């Protein structure tokens, strides 16, 4: 009996070592699969680097490295970027990827009728010229120290005109994985692209399984029905996995500034005294402990604490209920007021929302809570701006520039900040950029644009035999390219 058990165990271990398939759990299903026309992070979590590629890309460390552009030259005035494209690259439908596709993608993203959620990334492009099939030249209207960084965003991936009409349901890119199937409400399956131009991944098939309920996610992981869960939604259970030799727990950082987003044009939230009162009513640590079981870092502005330019401004909005009440009285609202609190599906929002509501209630601010699915949140809050307060984690990298967009969903319109961001864009000196970033962080903190809660932590629970999973999340991605099974 012992010999049979031992043999079975060895066979099982060998099977895993030779396996090339994986099932990864995620909490949030995307509304569609076009990263160039929506803000939902769940889209990039499927397609970034896997299905679609850009001129440049992010590594796990956050470094920007060559993607479809193998190299580039920058003119002395900083205005012209000449990209040498990888050769022999084809889209998943067999059509060639060349400079015309790059021009199409960038022109589409910056067009007047562009639906790109990060259209501002492309606003500085004055012209895109095809030199030859393997060379494209991008001319900027002014120098931009962030340009190569911006081209690494999921919103800047290269797409083809031939497949653009069906991209939302049938994404066709140049990446190492091809889209195979989407079972709505259940899973998305990707398969290895046998004609990939770059280094072939170890995995031949990956299924991304959607489990929205934290309790169900815990059960599925414990039963080993899934091999890994990226962005594990039940941090209270992490100690159980850490104590179980079948699993590994990876805890890292993200670019996710989790904020109490505030509609800056909705009375009385258009009054800075009211926004300041809200900020002082919030006990960040209580939210981190209660909603995230300690997995998070307090922030006082919209900037990642691990960034070298970060300034700790948490003192500007320290928890002080008495000061909050005094500010409300000064604003002419001694009895408080009522507003809406619309919450998207993630655990940090739903759990955190209940805690925030109780903290606001303690100073006289009543909130009418509505739980929304992502499609509803995008329609009502992000696009419709029909909200008072909401909680969301902005997981895009280095995205303080969104505060320079008056039509962005929280509707902050400060010409001084807009001018500051314009100066930053045209500045390449590292020390000068650090100073400008410090000013930018301070300005939005002192304007109390939003309630700054915490930097979202990244927790991944996985089978102990997997390697190559990202620990940190420098962008919105479930990068499959380096994952493999080991003994």
In short, what is this structure?
The chain is of the alpha+beta class and 487 residues long. It has helices spanning 2-18, 41-47, 99-110, 147-150, 214-222, 238-242, 272-281, 284-292, 321-330, 347-361, 374-383, 415-425, 430-446; strands at 21-26, 56-58, 64-66, 69-74, 80-85, 125-132, 135-140, 177-183, 187-192, 205-210, 228-230, 247-262, 296-298, 337-343, 365-371, 389-394, 451-463, 466-467, 484-485. It has two domains: 20-246 and 464-487, D-Maltodextrin-Binding Protein, domain 2 (3-Layer(aba) Sandwich), CATH 3.40.190.10; 256-455, Roll (Dipeptide-binding Protein, domain 3).
Written description of the protein model:
The protein is α+β, with helices and mostly antiparallel strands and 487 residues long. It has two domains: 20-246 and 464-487, D-Maltodextrin-Binding Protein, domain 2, CATH 3.40.190; 256-455, Dipeptide-binding Protein, Domain 3 (Dipeptide-binding Protein, domain 3, Roll). It contains 13 helices and 19 strands. α8 (284-292) crosses α10 and α12 (415-425) packs antiparallel against α13. The two termini are 24 Å apart.
Question: What is the element layout, followed by pairings?
Answer:
Layout lengths: L1 H17 L2 E6 L14 H7 L8 E3 L5 E3 L2 E6 L5 E6 L13 H12 L14 E8 L2 E6 L6 H4 L26 E7 L3 E6 L12 E6 L3 H9 L5 E3 L7 H5 L4 E16 L9 H10 L2 H9 L3 E3 L22 H10 L6 E7 L3 H15 L3 E7 L2 H10 L5 E6 L20 H11 L4 H17 L4 E13 L2 E2 L16 E2 L2
Parallel strand pairs: 1-10, 1-11, 14-15, 14-16
Antiparallel strand pairs: 2-3, 4-5, 5-7, 6-7, 8-9, 9-10, 11-17, 12-16, 12-17, 13-17, 18-19
